[in-house]
Amino acid sequence: MEEERRRAWIAILLIAPIPSLNLLFSQYSGDGSLAQAVFVLSKVWLLALPLWWYLKLEGNPISWSLPTQGGWGVAAALGLGMGGVILAAWFIIGVRVIDVEEIRTTWGMFGMTDWRILLMACLYWIFLNSVLEEFVFRWFITTRAETVFGDSGMAKPILLSATVFTIHHIIVLAFSVVWWVVVLGTTAIFVSGLLFSWLYLRYRSVWVVWLCHAIADVGLFIVIAIIMLG
């Protein structure tokens, strides 16, 4: 049992820092081509290591994480709630305190003021990045956290998974907005991570969690579109 826990910790530590290291490198490297290469390598690592660990090291059969226990309705309701909170936060607080022009100038360097590029970014985020995040943070890290904490229940694995999920988002926020917005955003992301991890442990399917995540992301991209396209 101790060997399994040690191995589970190693798996978590090999994955957890990668998104944050990628973001920090992209921000401070000063080399766009190298930053893009590191970005691609980080995504490959986040996909390949869990697959190798699960299939080869642990010798498990391939699993598509099919939603055999339901949960679609709960996921959709939570996603709509999250998306609604994002929109409400923007219209109640964001429009009054966030420097839209500064964000538009910064993100405009990446072509985000072009609706076609913005749409491509939205589709990538919802249909690729969100799936990868569920694969990594909800399936791989949460299940390894279950091994680490044994039969102590759902709370500790959920807390660990949500914490790891939140860390790299803090870095994204810190580069973009003022400190108190970072605090609010971090709190919202952490709560979202708790809900995502709970959904996974309750229904045991990354696709159920992805539905919730995708619906919430739609709300986020509506706000981004308002900012970038005016």
Distance between the termini: 56 Å
- Strand fraction band? under 5%
Helix content: over 70%
Helix-strand pattern = HHHHHHHHH
Specify the structural class: mainly alpha
Number of domains: 1
How many distinct beta strands? 0
* Low-confidence parts: none
Shape: globular
| Average pLDDT reading | 93
Using only CA atoms, what is the Rg?
18 Å
Largest sheet: none
Structure annotation, total helices: 9
Can you put this structure into words, describing what you see?
The mean pLDDT is 93. The chain is built from nine helices and no strands. It is mainly α. Helix 6 (115-149) packs antiparallel against helix 9 (206-229). It is globular. The chain has one domain (2-229).
Keywords:
230 residues, globular, mainly alpha, 83% helix, 9 helices
Explain briefly what this protein structure is.
The protein contains nine helices and no strands. It has 230 residues and is an all-alpha fold. The protein has one domain.
Topology:
Blueprint: H1 2-15, H2 18-28, H3 32-57, H4 72-97, H5 100-108, H6 115-149, H7 155-174, H8 179-203, H9 206-229
Helix pairs in contact: 1-6, 2-3, 2-7, 3-6, 4-9, 6-7, 6-8, 6-9, 7-8, 8-9
